[in-house]
Structures are given as structure tokens and as C-alpha cells.
Amino acid sequence: MRASLKKLSWSAWLQLAGWTVFGTLGCVAFSLAVTFVLFQNAGAEVFDLVLIEATVVPILLAAPLFFYLTLKLRELAIVNHKLVVAASTDALTACLNRGAFSSRVNDVLAREIARRNQRTMGALLVIDADHFKTINDSFGHAEGDVALRVIVAAIQPCLRSDDMLGRLGGEEFAVFLPGASPVNAADIAERIRRSVAEAPFQPAGRLHRLTVSVGGAVFNSPVGFEELFRVADLHLYEAKGAGRNRVELAPMPPDLTPGWLAPSLLN
Predict the structure, then answer these.
(1) Which strands make up the sheet holding 164-169, listed edge to edge?
(2) Which superkingdom heads the taxonomic lineage of this protein's source (predicted)?
(3) What's the average model confidence in pLDDT over 71-84?
(4) Are the C-beta atoms of residues 180 and 122 closer than 8 Å to each other?
């Protein structure tokens, strides 16, 4: 408990104090109300004595109890938050893992459907590190892990505040760009490509240039994550086949209807 108290900030102390005072005053008020009902016909001396006890005893008992309970509830909330973060975060790169990324993207898209917004737009970029196996084979998996963190660090400054970055697995990442126009999406994708190519990476003290290929799908009508990913992934393979270290971005096919949407929602 002492260790927990030492870690408390001033705002946490104020919160603990506030709940302790509030809870204690509530207990005192309840105690006084019960005392008044039970002893209102007692003599003045008895009533005064009982009234003092009804005030002092709750303070002595409730104050430390409420302080302890509030402290433990705060610790529980912190632990729960850490568990939620750990469950949704990729341990190596600290960006969203695949499950959390796809879930959050689908949540955003579903909200647009719920608003019956037929003009929703945005883009999904799928990013793959070029020749990543060569890095692992030449410098070892530890340096490969460093390379992945360098790539993430290079991508993040290129994103807007509402954009999402996730690691899909291995050396593959994805970026969701809600509300992005085709021009915005192409600009961000190209900035990501350049940023990674300019990122410093020196395994074993030797300069090694990192590059990524980017495939993207731009949408302007209701769609789901799986449909977006399937199309963006196809464009990623086009970028790989065209020589790597490039961006291939295109609109979603107009005849592709998201399978997870009920037809009534699209009308």
C-alpha cells in the first residue's frame, strides 16, 4: 500500500480525498438521521451524548475505510486499463494489433452506416517491408525487430490525429484513413513511402536502406474492413510486382457490395 501511495500524483490525491470526504459525510449524515429518529424522545443529556457518538464514530470508521476502498478501486481501474491496452497492442511495435485494428476500423465504418451516410469516404493502406527476409537472414531477427520499430516510427509522423496504424502480422502493417479523399490518401501513402526510405537503420553499424511497398483502396460508399483489405492487398501485390518501394492506390470496385451489411442499410 505504501508503494501505491508514493506513486500518486496530486490529482490522484485530490480524487482520493474528495471521495473519502464525500463518503464519510454521507455516513455521518445517515448516522445522525438514524440517531434522531431513535433518540428524539430521549432526555437532553442522553440525546447530546448519542449525537456526539453518531458523529465521531462514523468519522473514525468511515474515513479510513473509504480511503482504502477508493485507493483499491483506483488500482483496479489502472490494472484493467493496462490489460485492455495490452490486449489491443502489438508488443513489439506498440501499435494496434490485427484484431484491435480491424475491430476499430469496422466500428468507424459501422457508425457511418448507422448514420445512413452514403457519402462516407476514406482509405485503407496496406504496407509491407521490402526484402524483409534478407534483413533477418543477414543481420538476425533482433535487428529485424529493430527494423520494424524503425518503420513504425517513420510512419507515425505522416498520419493525422484520427488515422489508425496497426500491425497485421510479420512485416505487414495497415493504416486506416477515415474521411480521406483520393488525393489525401495518395499524399499520405507517398509520404509514408518516402519517410521509411529516409529512416536511419544501421544494423551491426552498417547503413541499410529500408523501403516499403504500399497498396491502398479508397472508398466513398459503405464498405467493411475485409472488403477494403482484400482490395488494398491486391494493390500491394501490384506494387511488389512493379518493383517495390512504390505506391499502388485505386478506388474500390463499384460493384463490390460488403457482405456483412444488410441490404436494407444500403438503401
Answers:
(1) 164-169, 172-178, 122-129, 212-219, 247-251
(2) Bacteria
(3) 73
(4) yes
Between residues 178 and 206, the one the model is more confident about: 178
- 98-265 — its CATH code? 3.30.70.270
Strands 122-129 and 172-178: antiparallel
In the residue annotation, 171 being an active-site residue is answered as yes
Query: What average pLDDT does the structure give for the chain?
Result: 85
* CA-based nearest residue to 22, from 75, 74, 69: 69
Count of Cβ atoms closer than 10 Å to residue 6 Cβ: 7
The catalytic position among 112, 171, 227, 248 is 171
Most confident of 7-11, 80-84, 100-104: 100-104
Asked if pLDDT for residue 258 goes beyond 80, the answer is: no
> Which grid coordinates belong to 207?
547503413
Contact 26, 77 (CB under 8 A): no
The residue extents of the domains of the chain are 1-87, 98-265
Instruction: Give the mean pLDDT of 76-83.
Output: 72
What is the Cα–Cα distance from 48 to 53, expressed in whole angstroms? 9
Alpha-carbon distance 58 to 78, whole Å? Answer: 29
Task: Provide Rg for the chain, Cα atoms.
Answer: 29
Per the listing, cell 505522416 goes with: 158
> What does the pLDDT look like over 30-43, one tens digit per residue?
888 887 777 777 77
Q: How far apart are CA 126 and CA 252, in angstroms?
A: 14
Find the length of the chain: 267
Which residues, 6+ apart, have CB-to-CB distance to 212 below 8 Å? 127, 128, 129, 130, 151, 192, 193, 196, 197, 245
